[in-house]
Hints:
Layout: H1 2-20, H2 31-34, E1 57-60, E2 64-66, E3 69-78, E4 81-89, H3 95-115, H4 127-144
Antiparallel strand pairs: 1-3, 2-3, 3-4
Amino acid sequence: xxxxxxxxxxxxxxxxxxxxxxxxxxxxxxxxxxxxxxxxxxxxxxxxxxxxxxxxxxxxxxxxxxxxxxxxxxxxxxxxxxxxxxxxxxxxxxxxxxxxxxxxxxxxxxxxxxxxxxxxxxxxxxxxxxxxxxxxxxxxxxxxxx
Length: 146
């Protein structure tokens, strides 16, 4: 009887703790962007999407503010498919920021090109840079209409 009471009490406590957990905010978002604010939108540098033709050109993504600095990319689209990504800005204030960008950005670019989109995984150890890269790339692809 004692064992049953102890088991029921500990199970109840565990359920209460699990229900108390709150969903996390994606890494890389600052408070103003997470609450629905928007970063300034630069104009696309390529052709506008047309209904009859797949989009082509280079489209600049939104600059995304992260905890360590701004991330911004430009996406090159040909016939409606992502064919290139150019990094315009990454955090580079410290040597550690530069080190993280040096190993994360090529991996992110390689994955984006393989996936032909922004549906990629973050690079371990570079979660803020990864989140900014993915959001900026998605905004560029949105501009392209892809």
